[in-house]
């Protein structure tokens, strides 16, 4: 499975998949997509990358332990819910902020950060499992 | 009665906890003087509380409320009245002396700072318990005393006996705690308020209710476990494994008195019924006799004192049960007297142990010369325990006899029990005072010398207080008895304590009889001990051994249950899961007639007419065929790898179906899940080296196949059933209508996930992460048995956990 073609192409595929996963996550509020699907795509890309480049290389390039990313996701989602307490409304009431950025208006909201949290959890957990399984395979061989 | 508001009361209960956190640092900084420094906290609480004395003596109450959960009407409310003030002053006063004492007793101990911290935390819990007005606050502090006492009893955790004593105390007092919680909730249901000050006014409502007995059992269960009433008394002697300062504090004036406090507190609400009186008097009486007999059985000073504590607790419960003005007055005075002499005696026992190296009274003697100040402390306390005139113990005894001066046969019976108990306690007091200190000097493991001043302050001050209170009956009556008894009974009580000895009164002669019997018990102590021990041996078992049997039985039972349920065979887990799924699918459908439509109706005749081919485009048929083909491929696959891939084909086909029928989000997710599950399954399978086709016996194959078919059929039938009925579209209508205007999103699925149902999602992602960690843990654990053969791999493994930790 570990052919030259695959190894050469994999980084390219992974890069595209990662960018695409972020795109899917961000468009989620209005078009099909969202944090869960985005996280799945990103995790799949990491699994592919692991097959092509080896687990240690992937871990190095990730910089953070995937499980730490997942933990960060849960915290981020929780904090985005807590943000509403600042306005005196109940937990998880969404807050919307429209930032003018030149000609376009960028809508920022707490659900966006919540979705980012979901993305991180799915991405982190599944990459951690995939990488762990792959590294086992490597060590056994 | 007036009342005023004082915000600082809550602070008094919280301050010890803050001090507890700081204690280890202060100890490290101050070393041997830590005891003196930390004693400032309880001392200042004592003085602060003393400031309320004037108001309370004049019949006022002082309260304080901190809002806790206002939505449910739950507050951390505190109330100072006669009863709580007496308890709180005792706790903080004795606490000051104990902290001082601990500073010297554990001087140089490795964990002295921690010990002082536990002590202070316990004191805070105890103060909170007696000052609390809300039943839930009471419960909170009640449990805190259990936890902190667990830490204190098990302080010397390297010894098995200490661990056992700690666990036993925790188990029993926590069972009591559960009773208290249940009782508190019941009272709230009946009275509609958590505040005990309000509940006290509603005694009639509670007593008249048919649930009264249940409420009573709950509160009695709590009080009897905490205050070591027979037959739940056995944890108290085992708790003597704690360092002596702990016993002096917890098992004299504080923790074990919490049950007594609770009973006194609930007297206006639950008391003065026949059941109440009978239960309390009978159990209190048995405990009194049992404890005093137990004390005579022992030779270890601390064990003797522990058993007398049980006896005294029984006496207090008995007095509360009697409930007359005299009995309650006697209870208040006896509580104070007991706190003075028992804490003092425990400290004396600790001092003897500390300086002479043993606590066995048979191995001690003639210490009075070497430790004169300790002897004075012991003598003062013992005299009060015997109840001689000019000590506070005398008034306690007089009061309790006074209440029973009638010709009623029950009163005479109780009187006999009281005299017998008091006489035995007096005998024990003589034993504790005379045996170690007077007579021939005996060689002890250590060369005895006088204890340091911090260890002497307690016994001397407490002993002296016992005498001073005994000389000033007017003060005792007016400033202690009246506020305390009035607060318990909820009506004004008169004091009639006097120093004058009336030789014509029967009362004095009853006291004299008690003393006489006490001396007799002292003279015959060794004979009685032998007799009692012989009886014990004949009996062969005690409540203690029963506790062990129950605990080990529980452990064995849970072990057996775990082995039964967690046999570790994945195949059976899956069989059970899917069998349960099948039952869950078919059970309701069968019970509520969901399958009736399957029966061919008579008028229908031909089944084939009912089957109408769905109108599908050719490519849609193609996708369906793909799904079916994938499924067949799974079944006939020559190797596991092919089976996994075929499963992926089938899943992808399902994703395509979702896409074609208007659920792009679902299709998208399904597709990604399929890809990832194929990847992960492949990894798992290659890791397990199971890439051949599996050879299972036919039974397994048939069983799994049947289950699969049943589950699939169940899901299909359920879906058909749901589609046949009318769907309630209120919710989806709401989402469709409001998604854009209030949630600013066009993708309803996503809006539901991150906004409407965000809380659910938060829980789900937490579960996802938890499951991921469990998977990682399992994967790592499996690696352990087979250590890596090559050294190259090792650094990688050690890196992983450190990364996870960061």
From TrEMBL, chain A:
Its main location: membrane. It comes from the Bacteria. Residues 5-127 form the Na+/H+ antiporter MnhB subunit-related protein domain. InterPro entries: CPA3_antiporter_subunitB, MnhB. The keyword Transmembrane applies. The chain crosses the membrane at residues 9-26, 32-55, 67-92, 112-133. Keywords: Cell membrane, Membrane, Transmembrane, Transmembrane helix. It is a multi-pass membrane protein. GO terms for cellular component: plasma membrane. It is found in: Cell membrane. The keyword Acetylation does not apply. PANTHER family: NA(+)/H(+) ANTIPORTER SUBUNIT B, NA(+)_H(+) ANTIPORTER SUBUNIT B. Belongs to the CPA3 antiporters (TC 2.A.63) subunit B family. This is Na(+)/H(+) antiporter subunit B. The lineage of its organism: Bacteria, Pseudomonadati, Pseudomonadota, Alphaproteobacteria, Hyphomicrobiales.
């Amino acid at each position: 499975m570990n052919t030259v073609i695959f190894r050469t192409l994999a980084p390219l595929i992974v890069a595209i998949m990662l960018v695409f996963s972020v795109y899917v996550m961000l468009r989620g509020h209005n078009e099909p997509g969202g944090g869960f699907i985005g996280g799945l795509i990103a995790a799949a890309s990491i699994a592919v990358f692991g097959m092509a480049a080896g687990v240690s290389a992937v871990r190095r390039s990730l910089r953070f332990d995937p499980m730490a990313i997942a933990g960060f996701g849960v915290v981020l989602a929780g904090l985005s819910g807590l943000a509403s307490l600042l306005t005196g409304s109940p937990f998880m009431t969404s807050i919307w902020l429209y930032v003018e950025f030149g000609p376009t208006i960028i809508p920022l909201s707490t659900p966006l950060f919540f979705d980012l949290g979901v993305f991180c959890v799915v991405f982190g957990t599944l990459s951690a499992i995939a990488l762990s399984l792959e590294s086992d395979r490597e060590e056994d061989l | 009665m007036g009342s005023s508001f004082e915000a600082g009361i809550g602070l008094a209960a919280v301050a010890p906890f803050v001090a507890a956190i700081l204690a280890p640092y202060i100890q490290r900084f101050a070393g041997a003087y830590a005891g003196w420094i930390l004693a400032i906290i309880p001392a200042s609480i004592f003085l602060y509380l003393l400031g309320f004395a004037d108001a309370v003596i004049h019949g006022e109450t002082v309260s304080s409320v901190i809002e806790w959960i206002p939505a449910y009407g739950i507050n951390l409310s505190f109330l100072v009245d006669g009863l709580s003030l007496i308890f709180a002053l005792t706790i903080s006063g004795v606490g000051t002396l104990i902290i001082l004492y601990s500073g010297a007793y554990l001087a140089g101990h490795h964990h002295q700072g921690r010990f002082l911290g536990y002590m202070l935390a316990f004191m805070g819990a105890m103060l909170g318990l007696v000052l609390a007005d809300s039943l839930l606050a009471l419960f909170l502090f009640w449990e805190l005393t259990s936890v902190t006492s667990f830490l204190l009893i098990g302080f010397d955790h390297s010894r098995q006996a200490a661990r056992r004593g700690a666990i036993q105390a925790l188990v029993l007092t926590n069972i009591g705690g559960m009773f208290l919680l249940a009782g508190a909730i019941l009272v709230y249901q009946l009275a509609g308020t958590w505040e005990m000050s309000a509940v006290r006014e509603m005694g009639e409502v509670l007593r008249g209710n048919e649930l009264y007995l249940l409420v009573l059992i709950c509160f009695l269960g709590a009080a009897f476990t905490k205050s070591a009433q027979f037959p739940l008394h056995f944890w108290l002697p085992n708790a003597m494994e704690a360092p002596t300062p702990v016993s002096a504090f917890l098992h004299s004036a504080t923790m074990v008195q919490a049950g007594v406090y609770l009973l006194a507190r609930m007297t206006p609400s639950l008391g003065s019924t026949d059941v109440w009186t009978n239960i309390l008097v009978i159990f209190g009486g048995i405990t009194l006799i049992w404890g005093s007999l137990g004390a005579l059985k022992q030779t270890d000073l601390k064990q003797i004192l522990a058993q007398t504590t049980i006896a005294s607790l029984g006496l207090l419960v008995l007095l509360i049960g009697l409930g007359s003005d005299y009995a309650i007055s006697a209870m208040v005075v006896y509580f104070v007297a007991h706190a003075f002499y028992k804490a003092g005696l425990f400290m004396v026992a600790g001092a003897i142990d500390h300086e002479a190296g043993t606590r066995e009274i048979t191995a001690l003697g003639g210490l009075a010369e070497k430790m004169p100040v300790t002897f004075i402390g012991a003598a003062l306390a013992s005299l009060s325990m015997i109840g001689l005139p000019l000590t506070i113990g005398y008034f306690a005894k007089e009061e309790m006899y006074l209440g029973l001066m009638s010709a009623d046969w029950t009163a005479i019976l109780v009187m006999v029990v009281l005299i017998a108990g008091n006489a035995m306690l007096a005998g024990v007091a003589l034993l504790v005072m005379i045996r170690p200190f007077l007579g021939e000097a005996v060689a002890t493991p250590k060369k005895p010398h006088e204890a340091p001043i911090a260890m002497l302050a307690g016994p001397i001050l407490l002993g002296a207080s016992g005498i001073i209170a005994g000389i000033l009956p007017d003060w005792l009556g007016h400033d202690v008895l009246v506020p305390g008894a009035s607060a318990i009974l909820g009506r004004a009580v008169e004091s009639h304590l006097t120093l004058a000895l009336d030789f014509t009164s029967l009362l004095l002669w009853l006291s004299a009889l008690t003393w006489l019997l006490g001396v007799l018990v002292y003279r015959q102590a060794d004979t009685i001990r032998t007799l009692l021990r012989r009886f014990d041996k004949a009996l062969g078992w005690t409540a203690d051994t029963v506790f062990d049997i129950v605990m080990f039985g529980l452990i064995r039972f849970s072990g057996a249950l775990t082995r039964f349920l967690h046999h570790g065979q994945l195949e059976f887990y899956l069989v059970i899961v899917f069998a349960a799924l099948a039952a869950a699918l078919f059970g309701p459908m069968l019970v509520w007639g969901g399958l009736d439509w399957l029966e061919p109706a008579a008028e229908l005749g031909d089944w084939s007419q009912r089957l109408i081919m769905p109108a599908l485009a050719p490519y849609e048929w193609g996708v369906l065929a793909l799904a079916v083909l994938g499924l067949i491929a799974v079944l006939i696959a020559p190797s596991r790898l092919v089976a996994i891939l075929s499963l992926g084909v089938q899943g992808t086909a399902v994703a395509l179906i979702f896409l074609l029928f208007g659920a792009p989000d679902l299709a998208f997710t399904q597709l990604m899940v399929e890809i990832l599950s194929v990847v992960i399954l492949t990894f798992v399978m290659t890791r397990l080296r199971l890439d051949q086709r599996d050879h299972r016996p036919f039974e397994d194959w048939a069983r799994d196949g049947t289950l699969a078919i049943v589950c699939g059929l169940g899901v299909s039938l359920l879906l058909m059933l749901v589609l046949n009925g009318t769907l309630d579209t209120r919710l989806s209508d709401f989402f469709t209508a409001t998604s854009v205007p209030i949630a600013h999103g066009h993708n309803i699925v996503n809006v539901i996930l991150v906004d409407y149902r965000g809380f659910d999602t938060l829980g789900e992602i937490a579960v996802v992460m938890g499951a991921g960690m469990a998977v990682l843990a399992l994967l790592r654990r499996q690696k352990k048995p087979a250590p890596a053969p090559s050294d190259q791999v090792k650094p990688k493994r050690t890196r992983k956990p450190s990364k996870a930790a960061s």
